């Protein structure tokens, strides 16, 4: 039973207010079990300040000998396990189950209880490991799900981007297709109009009068609307064809009006002459056109008389007389569509180009101003001089003349000084050049000397190396000859020594064989005796048994030594018990 349900001593918490407004918590023990109310001071979940703090929890008094289950979750606090979630609830349930299993474990008093306890603990450990693996797998599954969601979102984003790119490409291609269709339609209309014009031209060559009447009926400036007098009709009144009312011409027909306006007759005569000339030129052009048309039609009739009357064959000879240089209209420039991600770069580049162009123009203007600054100052001075009175102009002219004379004198003096300085500098320059030429010659001579010395030293070193190599070769050849002679002499001596040793060894072997034969015969006679053989067999049977008995006796002595030491150690360990319990250990 926990501390909350026991009625041993109630914990009463009072909230007292002091006179100065301070407050404090006071806790006191009340032993009255019948008391049914208590004043408890707590802190609200939400503080009145801006900063939220951990809610207040009063201290808990646990009676001795009790371990309530609530204390196992006392470490949980706000935002650190509270409010509790499914994870905290599962942890509490596992802790309860673990405590129950620990209570059910048998004590390890005997071997059977110990084995049962070990098996139960092993099963509990397996369950814990299985639970841990399950939680790890759940965590892994959640992470995999998050990864799948991230990959899915990324694929959707890429798909949307690809769809946007495809949509922009489709729109651009559709616009291009529409523009191309419009161009094609315009070209088709243009080709149809050209074909119609060619047909009209061909028909006008074949039947000019018909198309002349049609063209005249569509032109307001033709003879149908304004007939010429050269056609054989001469009206009595030059203004009769214009259908002007007679009262309006009375002013012009009167003689007194003509006398008042002497230039009217001349103007009318000039106008009439000009009109006659224009009419004659137009008639000549028209006649020449008719003549050319008749000649072309005659040529066409002559060609079509000998060939087939197909349209294709009839159109071939027209190329001699009808040649047109048709130029196609160039394609209208258009602004290509810019992607949103490239538009900012292009705008920045355009702005930078404008700034650079502006800076370039500004630099050019400044350079031109600096180059023509003297002219600008001269113009300003001339304007100021023109505004000044005559006396000031004369004084300024005299001053300028004086300044010019002084400048000329100063320039002559400066020129003389500069000439002398330049002459001195030229002499110094020639001197320096001569010194440098001599120094270069000296350096070249020193360089040639060093090169010759280096060449001679190299030749000398090569000769020394060759001499040393030849000496080394000679020494090696001589050493080889000496070694050959030594080996030859050594071989002769070795052969002589071996031959002498062999002869001496043969002599000694013969002598030793004669001496050892007697000893061997004596030993064979001794050990071939049956008595000796029987004695050796008995000895080989008895000696292993004796050695075995000696080994057993030695092991017994060693074990007895260890037994005495163990007995002595046990007696020493029971010595305190003998002093405590007395005669029970005797």
From TrEMBL:
Signal peptide: none annotated. The keyword Cytoplasm applies. Keywords: Cell projection, Coiled coil, Cytoplasm, Cytoskeleton. GO terms for cellular component: axoneme. Its main location: cytoplasm. Residues 415-442 form a coiled coil. The keyword Coiled coil applies. InterPro entries: CFAP91, CFAP91_dom. Residues 42-194 form the CFAP91 domain. Belongs to the CFAP91 family. This is Cilia- and flagella-associated protein 91.
């Amino acid at each position: 039973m926990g501390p909350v349900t026991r009625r041993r001593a109630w914990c009463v918490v009072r909230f007292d207010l002091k006179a100065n407004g301070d407050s404090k918590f006071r806790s006191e023990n009340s032993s009255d079990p019948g008391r049914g109310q208590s004043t408890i001071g707590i802190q609200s979940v939400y503080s009145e300040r801006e900063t939220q703090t951990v809610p207040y929890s009063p201290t808990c008094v646990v009676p001795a000998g009790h371990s309530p289950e609530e204390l196992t979750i006392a470490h949980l606090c706000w935002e650190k396990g509270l409010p509790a979630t499914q994870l905290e609830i599962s942890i509490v349930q596992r802790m309860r189950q673990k405590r129950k299993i620990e209570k059910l474990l048998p004590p390890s008093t005997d071997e059977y209880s110990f084995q049962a306890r070990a098996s139960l603990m092993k099963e509990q450990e397996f369950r814990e490991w299985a639970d841990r693996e399950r939680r790890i797998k759940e965590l892994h599954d959640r992470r995999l799900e998050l990864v799948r969601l991230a990959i899915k979102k990324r694929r959707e984003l890429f798909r949307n981007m690809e769809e946007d790119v495809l949509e922009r490409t489709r729109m651009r291609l559709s616009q291009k297709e529409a523009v191309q269709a419009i161009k094609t339609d315009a070209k088709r209309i243009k080709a149809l109009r050209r074909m119609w014009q060619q047909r009209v031209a061909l028909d006008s060559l074949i039947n000019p009068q018909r198309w002349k009447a049609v063209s005249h009926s569509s032109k307001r400036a033709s003879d149908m609307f304004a007939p010429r007098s050269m056609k054989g009709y001469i009206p009595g009144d030059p203004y009769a064809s214009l259908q002007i009312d007679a009262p309006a011409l009375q002013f012009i027909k009167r003689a007194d009006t003509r006398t008042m306006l002497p230039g009217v007759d001349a103007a009318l005569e000039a106008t009439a002459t000009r009109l006659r000339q224009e009419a004659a030129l137009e008639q000549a052009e028209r006649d020449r056109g008719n003549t050319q048309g008749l000649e072309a039609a005659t040529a066409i009739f002559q060609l079509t008389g000998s060939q087939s009357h197909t349209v294709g064959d009839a159109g071939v000879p027209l190329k001699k007389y009808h040649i047109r240089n048709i130029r196609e209209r160039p394609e209208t420039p258009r602004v290509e569509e810019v992607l949103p991600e490239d538009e900012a770069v292009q705008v920045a580049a355009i702005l930078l180009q404008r700034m650079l162009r502006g800076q370039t123009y500004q630099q050019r203007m400044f350079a031109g101003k600096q180059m023509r600054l003297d002219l600008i100052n001269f113009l300003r001075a001339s304007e100021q001089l023109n505004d000044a009175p005559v006396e000031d102009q004369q004084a300024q002219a005299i001053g300028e003349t004086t300044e010019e004379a002084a400048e000329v004198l100063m320039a002559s003096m400066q020129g003389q000084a500069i000439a002398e300085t330049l002459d001195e500098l030229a002499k110094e320059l020639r001197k320096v050049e001569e010194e440098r030429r001599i120094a270069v010659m000296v350096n070249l001579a020193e360089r040639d000397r060093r090169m010759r010395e280096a060449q001679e030293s190299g030749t000398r070193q090569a000769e020394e190396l060759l001499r040393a190599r030849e000496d080394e070769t000679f020494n090696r050849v001589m050493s080889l000859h000496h070694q050959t002679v030594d080996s030859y002499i050594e071989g002769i001596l070795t052969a002589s020594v071996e031959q002498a040793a062999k002869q001496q060894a043969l002599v000694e072997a013969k002598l030793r064989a004669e001496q050892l034969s007697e000893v061997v015969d004596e030993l064979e006679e001794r050990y071939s005796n049956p008595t000796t053989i029987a004695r050796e067999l008995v000895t080989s049977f008895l000696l292993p048994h004796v050695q075995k008995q000696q080994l057993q006796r030695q092991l017994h002595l060693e074990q007895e030594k260890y037994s005495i030491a163990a007995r002595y150690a046990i007696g020493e360990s029971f010595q305190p018990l003998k002093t405590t319990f007395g005669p029970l250990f005797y």
